[in-house]
Amino acid sequence: MNRRLTLVSSVAGAVLVALDGTVLTVAQPSLQRSLHASYAQVQWTSTAYLVAVASLLVFAGRLGDRYGQRRMFAIGMLGFGVASAGVGLAPGIGWMIGLRVAQGVCGALLQPATLGMLRAAFPPDRLAMPLAVRTGAIGLAAAAGPLVGGALVSGPGWRAVFFLGVLPAVALGLVALVLPGEDRPQTSRTPLDLPGALLLALTLAALVHTLVARPVSGAAAAAGLGGAALAGAAFVRHERRVASPLLPPGAIRSPAIGAALALLVAASASLFGTLFVETYVLQRRLGLDPFHSALRSLPLAVLMVLSALLCPVMLRRLGARWTAAAATAVLALGVLVLSGATGALAQCSAFALLGAGFGTVMVTATHVVVRHTEVAVAGVAGGLQQTALNVGPALGVAAGTALMGTGPRTALLVLGAVAALAVPAARALPESGVASLTHTPDERVRPGVPARR
């Protein structure tokens, strides 16, 4: 695909997944009544999806590196569209949970591919703007999701929420499938590390399930975290011994990539944990309805979009190190302001700081992860980035839940500290601006021609 079509496909894939997550939250009360389901069963419609996605992202990225990012994107989009239609037609809650798992598997296939396709299509010094457009679109989708979901649930009903993305997903999947074939990836002869993929999937599944499943006893939480730790240790031991590891050594040993992933985890944990806590503050302490609560937080989405689009300029002038450090500090400041804010103006200002900080961190850290990974393993890089953005929010919400007993202000101060403590990690990021980055011979791409892999 040419660059323009690649960008459109990447943005559309990311937006569909983001919309699916936000509109589901609005639809859950209605589908619970309609399907006569328990609260725990309805919660599993989200938990099953999150576990499936988080556990498979890195392996799905590896599949894209081996068989082609566009092919994985097409399969993921088609499967996501079909599974979405199935969820909309589900006759019972059991069917719905099973189909949400299928949606998660397909989402795992397409999400790393959206970044892998951008890495292959754009030269390194032009990656920042496509990533900024992608991030801005995700911000818009997150803001529009509750409004669109509310309108659909109030009108046609909750099933219409899941039909929303069926036609776009199928159409984009078919387009990606029928276009002239892409070059055979350089890693096509590399053996797949199936034991490593299984161990990593077990690690992430146990971790994410323990974090997002509620209510959970202390013993169950300890067992889940212990199982994740054991599986993680076995994964690390396996990766050190296998000839063709799932995670390329160049990626996991790179200080820049490790720091960027740590920033993504910390920033998303701080943001989503804060949003979880502040929802209770707005609706229970201040007595606002969901609509007016959404209005107070609207500056977050607006500034997230604007900061993402301005981020390439900051990267050129300041470099990734100073841009990420400043943005993470702004995010921490936003949480700090929100912890003491009660009036509408103060809260809106705090949400604006959150959006500006997180949008910039997301573009900067993603740019570092994708830019500093070879094209041949861009799918794994995309999988790692997406995994960080799945684990971070789960950690943040779990922390917010655990800290709510101490009071919202204390919970917010701790979550702000998480972002503040991550600022020094930016020192491992490259200092130079985007424009000064050097190119390897295989990365000199003619305008309009995707890089060969």
Features:
453 residues; 0% strand; mainly alpha; globular
Could you please describe the fold and organization of this structure?
- The protein is mainly alpha-helical.
- 78% of the residues lie in helices and 0% in strands.
- The chain has helices spanning 3-35, 39-67, 69-88, 93-121, 128-154, 159-163, 166-178, 194-212, 218-241, 249-252, 255-285, 290-340, 344-371, 378-403, 408-422.
- Helix 3 packs antiparallel against helix 4 and helix 12 (290-340) packs across helix 15 (408-422).
- The two termini are 13 Å apart.
- The model is unreliable at 433-453 (pLDDT under 50).
How large is the share of residues in beta strands?
under 5%
What value does the average pLDDT take?
85
**Which parts are unreliable, with pLDDT below 50 for 5 consecutive residues or more?**
433-453
Work out the helix count: 15
Name the shape in a single word: globular
CA(first)-CA(last) distance: 13 Å
Structural class category:
mainly alpha
The strand count comes to 0
The percentage helix is: over 70%
- Note the run of SSEs as H and E: HHHHHHHHHHHHHHH
Tell me the Rg in angstroms. 21 Å
Main beta sheet strand tally, sense and closure? none
